[in-house]
Amino acid sequence: MITLLVEDETKIEETLSKKDNSYRIGNRHCKIGRLEEIPISNVLVNDLSVTELLMLLKSN
To answer: How many structural domains is the chain composed of?
Structure first.
């Protein structure tokens, strides 16, 4: 499971391709199998990338 912090659903694939080098946008073998929105309070800091952490800190 990979945790992503995105502003809206349209940026999920782009963010995933940046976080996971094996994910390729448009590749028929790369598909998102399950998508679940979770509260930010349930996300561990070590699950976030530096970019995601900075985005979170700037929003507060």
So the answer is: 1
